[in-house]
């Protein structure tokens, strides 16, 4: 059965944080209301969370999303996080945002450039 809701609190929070980041990124770089490209990325991120097999029992997972995002989307979401992450610390709990970024891309993800 295909899931349409996130059951885990942790994933719900992650979902909210990612959406906020994408909206903020788009507003500053593209358009006031989510453009099609960012909408697609947002939906993609949501779909990945829906398919996350770990839910609340997710282990320490610095490699998690790296493995489940396809490369193109991974690059996009990485850009979004690099842009929005540091700027959102003012409006979002610092630890929630930093944890999310570290979890996705490893420590120093914001500072490092591949
Ligand atoms: Zn956009």
Secondary-structure blueprint of this entry?
Elements: H1 9-29, H2 36-50, H3 64-68, H4 71-88, H5 94-105
Helix pairs in contact: 1-2, 1-4, 4-5
The assigned structural class equals: mainly alpha
End-to-end CA span = 39 Å
Q: Give the helix proportion (percent range).
A: 55-70%
Number of domains: 1
Mean pLDDT: 76
Low-confidence stretches: none
List bound small molecules.
zinc ion
Radius of gyration: 13 Å
Number of strands: 0
Question: Could you please describe the fold and organization of this structure?
Answer:
- The structure is a single chain.
- Helix 1 runs antiparallel to helix 2 (36-50) and helix 1 (9-29) packs across helix 4.
- The chain has 5 helices and no strands.
- The protein is mainly α and 114 residues long.
- The longest helix is centred in the first third of the chain and has 21 residues, at 9-29.
- The model has no long low-confidence stretch (mean pLDDT 76).
- It has one domain.
- The chain binds zinc ion.
């Amino acid at each position: 059965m295909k899931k349409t809701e996130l059951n885990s609190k942790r994933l719900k929070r992650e979902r909210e944080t990612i959406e906020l980041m994408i909206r903020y990124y788009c507003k500053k770089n593209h358009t006031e209301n989510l453009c099609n490209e960012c909408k697609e990325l947002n939906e993609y991120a949501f779909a990945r969370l829906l398919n996350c097999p770990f839910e609340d029992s997710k282990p320490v997972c610095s490699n998690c999303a790296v493995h489940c995002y396809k490369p193109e989307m991974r690059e996009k979401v990485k850009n979004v996080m690099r842009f929005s992450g540091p700027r959102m610390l003012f409006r979002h709990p610092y630890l929630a945002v930093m944890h999310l970024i570290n979890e996705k891309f490893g420590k120093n993800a914001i500072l490092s450039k591949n």
